[in-house]
Amino acid sequence: MPAYPLSREFRVFFEDLKTVARGLSRPECVLSLDDGTLIAAHGSGGYSVVSATGQVTNWLIEPPPERAYVPNGIALAPDGQVLFADLGAAAGGLFALGKRGTLSTVLDSVNGVPLPPSNFLFIDEHNVLWFTVSTRKIPRSEAWNNDVKDGFIGVIDATGPRIIADGLGYTNEIAVSPDGRWLYANETYAQRVSRFPLKGTSARPELGSRETVAQLDGADLPDGLAFDVHGGLWLTCIASNRVLLVRPDGEVQTILSDTDDDHAARIALGIRERNLKHSDMQTPGKSRLGNVSSIAFGGDDMRTAYLGCLLDDQIRSFDIPLSGLVLPHRKRKLGR
Question: Which residue intervals define the domain SMP-30/Gluconolactonase/LRE-like region in the entry (predicted)?
């Protein structure tokens, strides 16, 4: 295996970050397209489009629905529609937002059971839709500890929707490795990165047994993830407000940290004592990163990292000395 080319001394500081866009609403998930456009989740029921010049346009469900939808993970479909996983208070599901704000249901149940609040989704190059549900518990805060493991990963393929991995510790973002052999998953409150061997066929995938790639601790709660072309896995951690790198040899390297140590200690204690409340996670403490939740690589050379967040109105960016992995949605066109 070739040596991983990034120095173990590579660090980014808050002062190095650039503000790409302001005035966003809960930009939890960010997608980067090849024309310089960014797409971000909009917490009031839709998504935001950020042009290459930084202009923000919001697209929301029309007419305003009675139900409060909370887009969390978003995906760009081959037909140009933006899909989102709904992280509502009690109900979830996968939805598509089309032209003129038209909302349509992609999936609201599996095996006859309604989907709980749903976390993330993406559509691969074989037109298989992958999605995650963090927990079946309502409210979700009952799963904010190391013990509850009732999250799952599902797919919608040619045979329909099904669950292909279950019993996970608050399943969050997932991604396929650069070699196409593994599906990686963040388990946020189990505080670990896992992977599953990809089996089956491209049209009907299956997953093998789970393996732990990295075990985190303290207030490191892995949320977003993205690969570079050399197999490094970049993580965003809410609560600790850190960006970490899991190098191919398994070493975990801190890339960026803007941690409020007192707040992080309170969160770590709450996880251990199983008493975190919703309000505990509605603040980043004194961190300026706003509970950094997403990382996406883009730019002409794929050497720009874009950061989404839960509790701020900005997308920030920094430069890296190697290229991120090109994802299938990068060459898709936003339909409007």
Answer: 92-256
Q: Give CA–CA dist 94/37, Å, rounded.
A: 23
Among 181, 116, 144, which residue's Cα sits nearest to residue 277?
A: 144
CA dihedral 181, 29, 122, 92 (to 10 degrees): 120
Contacts of 273 (CB under 8 A, 6+ apart): none
- Each residue of 120-160: pLDDT tens digit? 999 999 999 999 999 999 999 999 999 999 999 999 999 99
Side-chain half-sphere exposure of 34, counting CA atoms within 13 A: 9
Instruction: Write out the E strands in 45-191.
Output: 46-50, 56-60, 71-76, 82-86, 94-97, 103-107, 109-110, 113-114, 118-123, 129-133, 151-157, 160-168, 171-176, 182-187
CATH number for the domain harbouring residue 170: 2.120.10.30
Distances (CA, A) of 253 to 9, 131, 235, 247, 256: 9, 28, 10, 7, 9
Residue 2 lies in a domain: no
Other Cβ atoms less than 10 A from the Cβ of 218: the count is 17
Give the mean pLDDT of the chain. Answer: 97
Tokens of 229: 């072309």
Cis-peptide into 63, omega within 30 deg: yes
159-179 burial code (b ≥16 CB/10 A, e <16): eebeebbeebbbbbbbbbbbe
Report the domain count for the chain: 1
- Domain extent at residue 73: 14-325
Q: Is 332 part of a structural domain of the chain? A: no
Between CA 323 and CA 17 the distance in angstroms is 18
Question: Is residue 6 in some structural domain?
Answer: no
How much is the pTM? 0.98
* Domain membership flag for residue 3: no
User: Which tokens is 77 given?
Assistant: 């479909």
What are the structure tokens assigned to 140, written together?
């979700």
Return the H-helix or E-strand segment holding 205: strand 205-207
